[in-house]
Amino acid sequence: MRYNYFAMKKLVLSVLLLSYFLQQLYSESLVNLDTINNRVIKLFKQESYLDCYNLAKDLYSLSKDANDTILVFNSLYYMGFSNQRMGNMEKAIDYNMRAYEVSQSLQRLDLQSSILNNIGNVYMVNDEDSVAAVYFEKSIEIEKNLGESRRSQLAVRLGNVSTAYMKLGRCEDAISAAEEGLRIDKEIGRPNKIAIRLNQLGDVYMACGRQQDAIQCEREAYSYFEKAGSKYGMSIVLHSLGEMYEQDSNIDSSLFYFHKSLECAEIIDNKLLIQEISKSLYNIYKDTNPRLAIDYYEQYVNIKDSIFNEKNQKMLNDFQVRYSTREKDLEIELYKRDNQYHENVLRLTMLLIFLLIITIILLIRNGLSRKRRNAVLLELNNIKNRSISVLSHDLKNPVIAQKMVLNHLYENYDEISDDDMKMYIAALTDSVNSLEELLVNMLEWTKFEMKRMEYKPINFDIRDICFNEVVPLFNTIAQKKQITIRECDVKLDSYIVYSDLRMISAVLRNLISNALKFSSDGKEVVICFVDLGDKIKVVVKDCGVGIPEDKVKLLLSGKSFTTLGTKGEQGSGIGMDLINKMLHQCNSELNITSVVGEGSEFSFLLKK
Fold it and tell me: Which of 77, 205, 337, 479 could form a disulfide with 210 if both were Cys (CB 3.0 to 4.6 A apart)?
């Protein structure tokens, strides 16, 4: 009995000692993980991205074993960020997406915001600014909801989105975001961030034509960088000033700032900056000093050749995104996104056809007479055939063409110049815009054919709808073809009409689209409003190719056909059919007068 007592006592002591040992081991493990995490952050700040990435991979494995989800997120975050800085974009996107999934599982909005901001920067480096803006806007929305404690992060997001807006030509939005970001950093009192915001705001001002404001911002930013002894920041600001004076044709001042910028870049041996400055000096000297220009061009080429891989590895931070280069791995991701987008469009349209077929079945089951059932079936079948015809031809061909272009970009990315790349992207953008217009018209046309669009008249200002809601939709297309959209000089006392606002907006949209499509570069489209007593006449005139008389009769009779625009723009043939149907629903009708080679005039009447 005494033996059993001592044996039990010994066993209890052993268990207690083992528990204490395991607890100490677990505590030491946690301390070790925190130490590794701090080392990862330190390596990233030191710009030792490869070492940071390798250590973050070790941290990822250890934190998964320890079931520490926060450290799992941190390791993925720095694995993605390090690869982003090294130019390994496929890995950067993969790790960022995985980190975002972890942040969602943790329900940590602050972590989600950081990842969304990183993804936005990846896309902006690849000049996919519209995609980047979406991610930045999501991140900004999160930061605003998180409140005052996240104001410093909000300022960073606003600075990034201002650069994206600037590159997209959205000057007012860019200025508003950049100014707000600067205001927040000044209130917080972060000199290094104030300098970055000033540089961003200066770039935005310059892009929006406010040169003096831009120069003032860059000079103020320079004073911050100079005080901090940041040769890197000083070099960037001096280069920006040089570009600003070059744009103003002040060559002497431009050369002064470029050479000063080059001195700072050479001190820190930043090859990427030296390359950009050498290119700027070559552009100036090529007309005034060819021999010196050749020297700078050789330096530019030599550095470019020597740092091609290094250039992919060293992405610039948020205040110098405009100097970043494209990364081929992003094209793979964009290719997948575009394919998914078009696949979703096709599924949506097939769903529409399926719903039409279901409608036919329901009508039959409701016990309608054979004659009525046959009439409905015939009508719906015509709609289905027309829809399938549009989908199989007008939707399929652009999608196939886009796929071919994307395949070409992916397979020949390294051989494609920046100018050609912009041309391809512009062509893809035009194609997607055409697809969007086709789908909108098709959905509205289908609603009419299904008699699901009711006539709901209200009082509204036809001039306000036309020039503040419809015309802005075509600003990009008009600018591309250098076509002016203007109003007649004759003004009315009132532009209030009584009709269906949505239908009239769709009519104006299609008429203006056609006028732009069939107008040559440099022409104008004129929109007039004529007082006819109890009615207002709305007129859309173009100086385009005109329409033959026999084709005018076809258009007015409701029969549609397609004709390529002056730039080869395609149409579905349902736009004019939709216009006639909508105007008929609004107790009006379309009138067309046209002279081949001189232009066309489309008009309709609306009740005051």
Answer: 205
